[in-house]
Amino acid sequence: CLSMHSTDPLNGLIMKIMNDIKKGIQYAFQTSNNMTLAMSGSGHTAMECAVFNIVEPGESVLVAINGIWGERVAEIAERMGAKVHTLFKTPGGHFTNAEIEQALAKHKPVLFFLTHGESSAGLVHPMDGVGDICHKYNCLLLVDSVASLGAAPILMDQQNIDILYTGSQKALNAPPGTAPVSFSERACHKMFNRKTKPVSYLLDMTHLSNYWGNDGKPERIYHHTGPVSGFFALRESLAIIAEMGLENSWSHHTEIAEYLWKGLEDLGLKLFIKDKDLRLPSVTTIAIPEGYDWKELLAYIMKHHRIEFTGGLGPSVGMVLRIGLMGYNCNKANAAMVLAALEDALKQCRKSKA
Ligand code: PMP
């Protein structure tokens, strides 16, 4: 059990579990960053932790919005008093490095946010070169990989990403409630040399870095009660992905996604992301077929096939149907079941032209 008082050292077993988690995240993120840990909370906790610790009120932040996750980060940064600038595309769009560079030069932000796996649109964003451009403008790069980690390649150190976070419940297969995050040396320099304290006590990295044994101090003391059962599960899920190997996990997700995409096209459906290289293997988006009510399709599939499809999320509502095949659920049998359900729904739910 965890100790109860503010000066109590942490219990040895949980420290060992946390140390293993740190190593597992370093592998999954492909980073050697010392400042690597898991947040007690879902993906949003890591999102807020990154923004709250890196940015001080009044500083300029640039957020790429091409779906709901950029919208959320812009709101989080605005709430804590940052000067928020946005780069905007409708869902499904992506940003060229030239567009990013132009905006960095114009707004001179301390932080640039980009979503790697945009799950509301089904897009995997190209990452190469983005970190270098950010550093040219003395800006830190924050990347959301909640929906993509383990399903599509992301290499934190090689791609010069300063802050990377993910969630436990997507391709990692653990229950929701813990969120891996890692900070580069550059990010640590900025966040540990602030003039003001971060707005959140719970998410303050000066405390969390001690709690996770990352600050070099001999004693790790109680900061908050960690979700211990979530930590055990996260440790196991990271061990599984390490045993499988990241490359195998990426190629497995791609293979199943390609099988699904082909099946969907054979049913006459149009994939929302046209360029195959930009499709997120873990979340496939289908353009809503003409002559159908998307809500009726979802309800029919739930009622008759007991499969939960979803519609869009945030700005993609009414544009897409979404199918998630990730981690344990990502296999050919499930993809085939999804295709059979859709085939049936397409036959039964067509609206009459009258
Ligand atoms: N970012 C992305 C890309 C996501 O897909 C999600 C969850 N769907 C989140 C962030 C938020 O994660 P959570 O629900 O775990 O807070």
UniProtKB/TrEMBL annotation:
Keywords: Aminotransferase, Pyridoxal phosphate, Transferase. Gene3D superfamilies: Aspartate Aminotransferase, domain 1, Type I PLP-dependent aspartate aminotransferase-like (Major domain). One of its GO terms (cellular component) is peroxisome. Pfam families: Aminotran_5. Substrate binds at residue 322. Its EC number is 2.6.1.44, 2.6.1.51. It comes from the Eukaryota. This is Alanine--glyoxylate aminotransferase. It comes from Sinocyclocheilus grahami (Dianchi golden-line fish). The lineage of its organism: Eukaryota, Metazoa, Chordata, Craniata, Vertebrata.
